[in-house]
Amino acid sequence: MDGIKYAIFTEKSIRLLGNNQYTSNVESGSTRTEIKHWVELFFGVKVIAMNSHRLPGKGRRMGPIMGHTMHYRRMIITLQPGYSIPPLIEKRT
């Protein structure tokens, strides 16, 4: 489970739970097949589809120096009907 960082709880992701779709941020270097294998192995579910998109890092300023946070990948995982994933721990900021 090193590839999955944390679950996402937004209005859209909560709406997608009704369609048996789960949203989480994953390591940017992870592939779809790796994430699918981790989810199926760890949670004991059957994944039928995966959608992903790469989100850009945000700019951060420290005095006169402009930096940025790392970019990350977000996966939307669709499970077969009858399967479900227990809620993952939400990232605290």
From TrEMBL:
GO biological process, alphabetically ordered: translation
Pfam short name (any one): Ribosomal_L23
Any one of the GO CC terms: ribosome
Signal peptide bounds: none
Quaternary structure and interacting proteins, as annotated: Part of the 50S ribosomal subunit.
Entry similarity comment: Belongs to the universal ribosomal protein uL23 family.
Protein name stated in the entry: Large ribosomal subunit protein uL23c
Species for this entry: Paphiopedilum niveum
Gene that this sequence comes from: rpl23
